[in-house]
Amino acid sequence: MDTQRLPRRDVALTEVGFGAAQGGDLYRPTTHEEFARAVETAWDGGVRYFDTAPHYGLGLSERRLGALLRDRPRGELVLSTKVGRLLVPSPSTAHERDLDHGGMFDVPADVRRVWDFTADGVRRSLEESLGRLGLDRVDVVYLHDPDEAGLLDVAIAEAIPALAALRDEGVIGAIGAGMNASAPLARVVREGDVDVVMCAGRYTLLDPSAADDLLPLAAERGVGVVVAGVYNSGLLAHDRPPADATYDYAQAPRELLMRAHRIADVCEAHGVTLPAAALAFVRGHPAVVSTVVGLRTAEQVTQALDRAATAVPAALWRDLRSAGLLRADVPAPA
């Protein structure tokens, strides 16, 4: 699989990355064996970039992924995790499930998340992640959703310098931030000494708004962009979006559902599936260095790799522009 090196660091990401949130039992249980087959299939398919976070399954994703990757050649592997949510013991909720306690993961709520973007907090978070992963270093560390916590100022003032110091010590290969909005990521690129950002859901066939602020700035500053949420949480994940399709983890609005069907019409006319076009589209921007796809099973991995290998004709992008379904100022893949 093709790789792309971060402009400012000696870290190379495969064009498809393995998103390991499902390894934390996102919404429903996943057996260790099922997840192990997914990781093995991804590795056999050339994927060398794997992304996780303490948030995913209250540490379960990190523990599983670390165990499955520990014996792989470390020089080939690129692993990213995130900081900003400390996991603190919570005996009073240990009998509950995270799903029932306002979370997204079907795991025991025996710990709780505590926001912390102070210098001490991110160092502690990384140390605990290394313990769960069973590794002595990670390649990329992202600040995880500081905008959601209302802590972006603290993250820029304290967390980024703390991570930069760890990067300079060689504990981390590259640093950045991951969020679901492009404007705060653009601020991080402007004000912080970062190497890469992860933008979820804001550069897709349905919502290319990151092209207005984040992507041109990142290209100018030499900051790599990893695109996540390329299917907008489900609406672009099927050849034909179902009526109950989700968009940004909620019921898709009717106007977006109809727009997705119109895009699917154009894709079908060119013999390309909607998900394959969605995956190909994001690689057209020069700032994008990788696309992370959330994966749970070996079958999903095979499907994602097949989609990534699909040749999308230039005429498809031209027809989308002609139909008013793709902005004229957004770059399309060559």
Record the SSE blueprint.
Layout: E1 3-5, E2 12-14, E3 16-19, H1 32-44, E4 49-51, H2 60-69, E5 78-83, E6 85-89, E7 111-115, H3 119-133, E8 138-144, H4 152-169, E9 172-179, H5 182-191, E10 196-200, H6 214-221, E11 224-228, E12 246-247, E13 250-251, H7 254-269, H8 274-282, E14 288-294, H9 298-308, H10 314-322
Parallel strand pairs: 3-4, 3-14, 4-5, 5-8, 8-9, 9-10, 10-11, 11-14
Antiparallel strand pairs: 1-2, 6-7, 12-13
Helix pairs in contact: 1-2, 1-9, 3-4, 5-6, 8-9
Explain what the structure shows.
It is a single chain. This protein is an alpha/beta fold. It has one domain: Alpha-Beta Barrel (TIM Barrel). It has an 8-stranded parallel β-barrel with strand order 3-4-5-8-9-10-11-14, surrounded by 5 helices. Strands 1-2 form a two-stranded antiparallel ribbon. Helix 3 packs across helix 4. The protein is globular. It comes from Beutenbergia cavernae (strain ATCC BAA-8 / DSM 12333 / CCUG 43141 / JCM 11478 / NBRC 16432 / NCIMB 13614 / HKI 0122). It is an enzyme of class 1 (oxidoreductase). One of its GO terms (cellular component) is cytosol.
Keywords:
334 residues; alpha/beta; eight-stranded parallel β-barrel; two-stranded antiparallel sheet; 14 strands; 36% helix; Pyridoxal 4-dehydrogenase; oxidoreductase
